[in-house]
Write a structure and sequence with these properties.
The structure holds two protein chains of two kinds. Chain A has 14 helices and no strands. By secondary structure, chain A is mostly helical. Helix content of chain B is about 70%, strand content about 0%. Chain B contains twelve helices and no strands. Chain B has helices at about 1-35, 55-65, 65-100, 105-115, 125-130, 150-160, 165-175, 180-185, 190-205, 210-215, 225-235, 240-270. The model of chain B has no long low-confidence stretch (mean pLDDT about 90). The chains are: A mainly alpha, B mainly alpha. At the A-B interface, helix 1, helix 2, helix 4, helix 5 and helix 6 of A face helix 1, helix 3, helix 4, helix 5 and helix 7 of B.
Amino acid sequence: MFKKNKTFYEQDKKAGVLLALPASFWMLLWVFIPVSFAFFASFTNWNLLAGFRGFVGLQNYITVLTDEKFWLAVRNTLTYAVFVIPAHICLGLFLAYTANMGHKFKGFLRTVYYLPGITSSVAITSIFLFLFSKFGIINQFLTWLSDVTPLDYTAVAWINDPNYALPLIIIMAIWSGLGFNMLVFLAAFQDIPMEIYEAATIDGCSEFHKFFKITLPLIKDQMFFTMVLAVISSLQVFEIAFVTSGSSAGSPNGATYTIIMYIYDTVFGGIGAVGKSSAAAFILFAVIMTITLIQKKLFSDKEVS
Amino acid sequence: MKSSYSEKIFKFVMYSLVFILTVSFIFPFVWAFYSSFRPESVVNDFTLQFNNLTISAYLKIFTGNPVLRWYLNSFFVSIVTVTLSILMNSACGYALARINFKGNNILFTLILGVMMIPGQVTMVPTYILISKFNMINSLWGLIIPFLFNAMNIFMFRQFYLSFPKDLEESAFMDGLSRIKIFFKIALPLAKAPIVTLVILNFIGNWNSFVYPNLIISNKMLYTLPVGLASIKKEYMIPINESMAAAMLITIPLFIFYIFMQKKLSQGIATTGIK
């Protein structure tokens, strides 16, 4: 038997290479070559139509970092993150908590909040543009609200108004991403042993107390992990804003212009400046990489201690 | 008791909040669905009327555009991509978990590294590469470049790390080669990760918009989201048609998801994939 096993493991090596080969080749062709090319192009004047037009050193990076449009994109992206991340975390926690309490609702809530997450951005955009259109349901409600309360509001089509376009994107993002966050927290809650709560109940703890003194500290790690993921994905916000603003990127008036849109628009928006776009992509890449590495470090430190 | 009284209030407030939140989450779908059957003239009225419902919006979309063709394109791209990528990535994950070939560790480290690269960084070079391979305006341009998936390889590797070894050894006794063992035993038994990844990848492919929008400009080759977005772009379409278009993308996927959901949560439970 040993002998047979030996041949089994000897012929392994060839088979291993063979099985791993397609994926490795694809990774080389469709990940490493594009990444290396982008890195190379970021130091050149590469143009989508004209191709290589000479090296420019760090010029592209300087151009991007001094480009007003880039900082507008950074500002919009950060505004987006500042609203979307806390909303996802707080509401996600709240929903997971309630779903975890009542077993009857769990399946229902799971489905309801997950469906927006699997809805096409094209469909989401159509639906929300309709709801938030000038004479749409939301405006009817807000106008009524401003009539009965001191609030001051004049109906506008949210997507055409520079003050309301980004909030609309934020609302869409909260709506579509909440389910995922709820599921993560729900999974985290289920790892907490029920005995802890039972003991706390005997000691006379209120629900409120239990949540803040037991649940939250116990899911600290998942919280942190979810937050890092949320920051990374917020930095890459693009598709909803892209579909919403259609052919003129970031419309109205750059209100929905995001970092990835800058990367996209610099090439496909007309002038085909692959070099400049690649420099912006690598700046973003560096930021995301730094966040990831910090997170990895913090996590592995925890494992050691 | 005083504490139980305040607890009741607490619960009441909480469940009311959940109720309001849930209604506001369902409302957009319900309202869009309802509006897709309403005449254009009353589409903004906040009333429920069922006597004037019509399917004219759907008829107009179907008669004016090759929607069935777009459905076929979407199905073709999603099914082929998911099938090929599951095959490719499971084989790699299996090799990484089970076979100590030369370069195993380096390959695994590279794959972990690739998982950290945000997809959009490579958007422009990927487009250039696709055009160099002459896959612009070809459905293969939506399939070939998107087969490799580091996350899927990682998931399969994790699954195969805890896969029983005796199964493979006895198969080897029966004279099966390692490759055959993978295809005849290891792959068919990886049902849990396969089901989960098929569902997630299918959803991702079905909804994919940025690349198809960039690569395909021939109307007959549009995928569903690109096709339906193009109707909106070409002219100001009435709201009921726009909602009908949204429903045409969404409903098949919802049916697919609700149908598969049980399997998905089982898969999540056994593989830890979220």
